[in-house]
Amino acid sequence: MSTVGILGGGQLARMLALAGAPLGLQFLVVDNEPSACASQVAPLLRADYRDFVALEEFAKRIDVATFDFENVPAETAQWLTEHTRVFPNPRALAVAQDRLEEKTLFHSLGLETPAFAAVDSRIDIETAVAKVGFPAVLKTRRLGYDGKGQYRLRSAADLDPAWAALGGVPLILEAWIAFEREVSVIAVRAQDGEFRTYPLTQNWHADGILSMSLAPAPQVENLSASAFAHARAVAEKLDYVGVFALELFVVDGKLLGNEMAPRVHNSGHWTIEGTACSQFENHVRAVLGLPLGDTTAIGSSVMFNWIGSLPDARPVLAESRAHWHDYGKTSRAGRKVGHATLCAADNIEMSRRLARVARALDREAQAAPVLEALQR
Ligand code: ATP
Ligand code: MG
Ligand code: MG
């Protein structure tokens, strides 16, 4: 029986462990938070990511290491490769951890991005604005997630407050894109280079946090092939093994690269019930060198993200082909505490199911853009 070690004990680790259990796999999660939600379903090794004594014990107890948390220090990932197998590799992790490196890589592979410029000082913002224009968004190059570490710039009056809010660490200024929509590629690459993608997913964010996903994304005939080719090019360039997400903006029918996540991704949660082999199972298969599973969508899926606190599960559970995920976390503003996935045979059945659930949960505003996309 193989043991998969996971750095980070959040809901992604939890869903990886749940997906691997039927395969007879064991898991060991490293997190310094004793109440990490993955610890409810897998053993926890309580340690800091720089505690190399504990990491040595971790490496001894596992067959392969992977990540739930994308910001594990590069030094730790590198150290681990000297003690166990590690997927994705530390270089892939390092590139994905830095918005400047990531966007530079996208460009080198022919994937356009919003205009951007590095910002390391207050003066740099002026130069960057001259290049990128308004509106723009100043972001920390590293450690941002769920829209944290970002400041929107509408005019020169915003430069000082933006610098006051974020200055002091390496930053990037990006053009703010009035996109038509956002999509993501969830892809998996095996150790032998086999590459598979799930159907393109359309995503809606609220306050920088993923709110809803719809898969397969409607009307993407002209986008899918090029989105998948970009994902493949990134994976091959980084010799990536495992599941990753490529977040894209669609503007004037063209794709722009926003960022990649070097791990299973929130916009792929629908694959648990919406495909034969979820992103979580495929990630585990890839890091263990097992054959990859089927990524084809079974009908249509919609995911609601539960941010802050969970609504009442019953209206969802009362619906057929509807699935509830409670991560076992305590409520806190802005925190991802669970999700629900609705599945249906087609977009017409999905529209009815989604409308019923949204009404029962008083989530009509959240679901409205998804219903609109389904009706197009
Ligand atoms: P994640 O939780 O996905 O890792 P993050 O904190 O890394 O998020 P981004 O993905 O860069 O942040 O931004 C979050 C959301 O904010 C995007 O999905 C998009 O909706 C919006 N956004 C970010 N950058 C831009 C941009 N340059 N133009 C328009 N919208 C943007
Ligand atoms: Mg991110
Ligand atoms: Mg993002």
From TrEMBL:
It comes from Pseudolysobacter antarcticus. Residues 103-288 form the ATP-grasp domain. This is N5-carboxyaminoimidazole ribonucleotide synthase. It is an enzyme of class 6 (ligase). Transmembrane segments: none annotated. GO terms for biological process: 'de novo' IMP biosynthetic process. The keyword Nucleotide-binding applies. Belongs to the PurK/PurT family. InterPro entries: ATP-grasp, ATP-grasp_carboxylate-amine, ATP_grasp_subdomain_1, PreATP-grasp_dom_sf, PurK, PurK_C, PurT/PurK_preATP-grasp, Rudment_hybrid_motif.
